[in-house]
Amino acid sequence: IQDYDSDKMFPALGFGAQLPPDWKVSHEFAINFNPTNPFCSGVDGIAQAYSACLPHIRFYGPTNFSPIVNHVARFAAQATQQQTATQYFILLIITDGVISDMEETRHAVVQASKLPMSIIIVGVGNADFAAMEFLDGDSRTLRSHTGEEAARDIVQFVPFREFRNAAKETLAKAVLAELPQQVVQYFKHKNLPPTNSEP
């Protein structure tokens, strides 16, 4: 996705871990431990921040997705004021597939479906990913626990194990498969034209 970002600065957030010094469980923390500036420079910067973060935290349940979804949704909500199709947010979640707050996450995704954002979930490991498949509304419209329907399908789930031995382009194709349609669908619905950019 980084090739579609102008400055290559990405906020990287962790969830499902105990953090020092009080070892409280957090579901929304900057992996560079700088909450006012969680941005990392490129994919290499994210990988470096993750490696540096690991020795200082303890993975811990429950695993809640809704705080991270709501975090990105707050930024996407601010972007709804735009007059042209210039800002769109992609939340990439890399997870082992266990999810503890399914009702809250369903609600968060349904609310986010009204905003300029998409969610890509990459499942790592051999867990049962039924919950992730459920969030990916390919076979039916996702509903919140109150019965509200998602305005559009914004979740793409990809199980990494199916691409472990494949070319990286194959994984990229699966991850990005629905994104162009989701972006166009949102901006067309809002009747926002793209900005004319020089080649």
From TrEMBL:
Pfam families: Copine (PF07002)
Taxonomy, superkingdom: Eukaryota
Gene Ontology annotations of biological process type: cellular response to calcium ion
UniProt cross-references to InterPro entries, sorted A to Z: Copine, Copine_C, vWFA_dom_sf
Residues covered by the Copine C-terminal domain: 1-194
Annotated Gene Ontology cellular component terms: plasma membrane
GO molecular function annotations of the record: calcium-dependent phospholipid binding
Name of this protein: Copine II
Species of origin: Panthera tigris altaica
